[in-house]
Specification:
alpha/beta, 9 helices, 9 strands, about 35% helix, globular
Length: about 270
């Protein structure tokens, strides 16, 4: 376990600026649609958004690559200086290098053996007016289609009385994903497409399973929209394209079988 500093907005800003500098150095064009679905800006506390009770939201983000969260945060920050608090696995939070950033940035640590604590922490942040970001697929989808989601985003949003904002990220997996490491040559000027869907509000007494499936469909529709106008024409069989569009990615059935094999082999906690 590394150093565990208190939540620090200055540290959050430093990380955001470092990320923006890295993306700028690679000349990454980021095309965003749906920003009209993001809430209006809240007052600032210095150079960061000030949390206002009742103004928070759950942000549900697709998970095809290891940098999807960074592009989602870039959009939130550019829109309203939003510092989203991400749900981070305990395994990642325990890493000596990652740990200071997890705690300094105010993220929520999830432990498979004590999930209620993370849920309560996330709920408290939402009620205080924070944005809590979740990658509800709970691991990279190697078919590059949105797989079944965990119910956490819907349950948290309903209990906190805040909306779920769907964020679909396409193209970031071409930079870094499972089975495909980072390549400066491939990353140079590689476009990333982000679509923000319309916020979803859940009434008391909702069917959690049904609402979670609706969220999955909304995220997939956002991905479809991103693919439709993506500025790179894929070669036939391109590894980064879904199989149903002629790409070389796993089919949904192959991905499901691979996920089952991972769980049996004890790799269920891997991204």
């Amino acid at each position: 376990m590394g150093w565990k500093p208190r939540q620090n907005d200055r540290m959050y800003r430093s990380v955001v600026y470092a990320g923006k500098a890295a993306f700028a150095a690679l000349r990454l064009p980021v095309v965003v649609t749906g920003t009209e679905h993001l809430p209006v800006s809240d007052p600032l506390a210095g150079r960061s958004r000030r949390a206002v009770p009742g103004h928070g939201a759950v942000v549900a983000i697709t998970h095809f690559g290891y940098l999807d969260f960074a592009f989602a945060e870039l959009v939130l920050w550019n829109h309203a200086r939003i510092q989203a608090r991400y749900m981070i696995s305990k395994r990642a939070a325990d890493h000596w290098f990652v740990s200071p950033f997890v705690f300094g940035l105010g993220h929520v640590v999830t432990d498979r053996m004590a999930g209620a604590d993370a849920y309560d922490d996330a709920l408290a942040k939402l009620r205080a007016g924070e944005y809590v970001a979740i990658l509800p697929e709970a691991g990279v989808s190697r078919s590059y289609t949105v797989r079944g989601l965990k119910t956490g985003p819907v349950r948290l949003a309903a209990e906190a009385g805040v909306p779920v904002i769907p964020v679909s990220v396409w193209g970031a997996h071409r930079l870094l994903t499972r089975g495909h490491g980072f390549s400066p040559r491939r990353a140079w000027r590689s476009p990333v497409r982000v679509h923000i869907g319309e916020p979803i509000r859940h009434a008391p007494g909702l069917d959690v399973g049904e609402e979670t499936e609706k969220l999955r469909q909304e995220l997939q529709e956002g991905i479809d929209r991103c693919i439709a106008d993506f500025p790179v024409t894929p070669e036939p069989g391109a590894w980064w394209m879904p199989a149903h569009l002629g790409g070389g990615a796993m089919t949904d059935a192959e991905r499901e079988a691979a996920d089952v094999a991972d769980r049996k082999a004890g790799r269920h906690s891997r991204g």
